[in-house]
UniProtKB/TrEMBL annotation:
This is Rhodopsin. One of its GO terms (molecular function) is light-activated monoatomic ion channel activity. One of its GO terms (biological process) is phototransduction. The modification N6-(retinylidene)lysine is found at residue 223. Keywords: Chromophore, Membrane, Photoreceptor protein, Receptor, Retinal protein, Sensory transduction, Transmembrane, Transmembrane helix. The lineage of its organism: Bacteria, Pseudomonadati, Bacteroidota, Flavobacteriia, Flavobacteriales. It is a multi-pass membrane protein. The chain crosses the membrane at residues 20-39, 51-68, 88-106, 113-133, 139-158, 179-197. Gene3D superfamilies: Rhodopsin 7-helix transmembrane proteins. It comes from Dokdonia donghaensis DSW-1. GO terms for cellular component: membrane. CDD domains: 7tm_Proteorhodopsin. It is found in: Membrane. It holds the Pfam family Bac_rhodopsin.
Length: 247
């Protein structure tokens, strides 16, 4: 954040500008969440610190992008598509890393992590092309993106990741399940925003919604919620360990 930004006159936010409002609140919420995760890191067992660190990084990276997106919207009154996708292409792979980190206790291999990362990048790059490069075929790019999304959902709900979670059992299994729900329901918010903001046969269905408001809502739920699930798991796992030690 440079001096130029800090010295920019504060623009008014119209009371019905929900995009500006959700960018503003989103930036603050991401900052607060990042501070929370970073500062709590050292209270956990060493094994869990990396997971909490990644939760902090996800929300921190989002906070910085929200700061820029908030500014961009104020200045241009158009969707900050580029910043949005740069944010996602950094943070969504980190969410895939979270799956790998919590399943490591059951012997998760790096190949699982790379597979999920690869799928998420395919999902996001095709989404970006549909929104910014080839809007006339947005429906087709959205379909390819959606296919990659479904493979991710399959992998974590029924595929190799699921098997590892079952093997780990206990708190890891239940955290894995909650994260799976985030991906199935929380991530499904994004295609709705996409359909609201790109031309296509679906225009009439979601036409009344704002792409940016939907995306901002999705980000708050998914980035902070995801982090809290991991935080909860680390708390439970660290406590059971110290109980065992005192017994
Ligand atoms: C923190 C940001 C997150 C969790 C972003 C997730 C984004 C998606 C799951 C986006 C998915 C899309 C589709 C499934 C189809 C249409 C294009 C996208 C990129 C919006």
């Amino acid at each position: 954040m440079n001096l130029l930004l800090l010295s920019t006159a504060l623009d008014k936010i119209a009371s019905d500008d929900y995009v500006a409002f959700t960018f503003f609140v989103g930036a603050m919420a991401m900052m607060a969440a990042a501070a929370f995760f970073f500062l709590s890191m050292n209270s956990f067992d060493r094994k869990w610190r990396t997971s909490i660190l990644v939760s902090g990084l996800i929300t921190f990276i989002a906070a910085v992008h929200y700061w820029y997106m908030r500014d961009y919207w104020q200045a241009n009154a158009e969707s900050p598509t580029f910043f949005r996708y740069v944010d996602w292409v950094l943070t969504v792979p980190l969410m895939c890393v979270e799956f790998f980190l919590i399943l490591k206790v059951a012997g998760a291999k790096k190949s699982l992590m790379w597979r999920l990362i690869f799928l998420s990048v395919v999902m996001l790059v095709t989404g970006y092309i549909g929104e910014a490069v080839d809007r006339d075929n947005a429906w087709l790019w959205g379909l390819i993106s959606g296919a990659a999304y479904f493979v991710i959902v399959y992998d974590i709900w029924l595929g190799s990741a699921k098997k590892l979670a079952v093997k780990a059992g206990g708190a890891v299994l239940s955290a894995h399940k909650t994260l799976c729900w985030f991906v199935l329901v929380g991530w499904a918010i994004y295609p709705i925003g996409y359909m609201a903001g790109t031309p296509g046969w679906y225009e009439g269905i979601f036409g009344g919604l704002s792409l940016d408001v939907v995306y901002n809502l999705g980000d708050a739920i998914n980035k902070i919620g995801f982090g809290l699930v991991v935080y909860n798991l680390a708390t439970i796992a660290s406590n059971t360990k110290s109980l065992e030690e005192t017994a």
